[in-house]
Amino acid sequence: MTAHDETLDCKGLQCPMPVIKTKLKMDTMEAGKVLRMITSDPGSCKDIPAWAERVGHTLISTENTDEGFVFLLQRGD
What we know:
77 residues, alpha+beta, Translation Initiation Factor IF3, four-stranded mixed β-sheet, 2 helices, 30% strand
């Protein structure tokens, strides 16, 4: 597993809240830092990668775990 700098728990939130909360958290992070975001919303499996690509962040990985859907995102410039 890749190391991460921050964790954001979005379990129980439905679209579009995981994307909104992820955006707000990423806005507070420095370029190059890695966020681990966890959600129970299956729609995030399409929404988070599309959003990250659109705004210039790097999706490092996506996993479906017992915890939920786990995304590792690296903040772009």
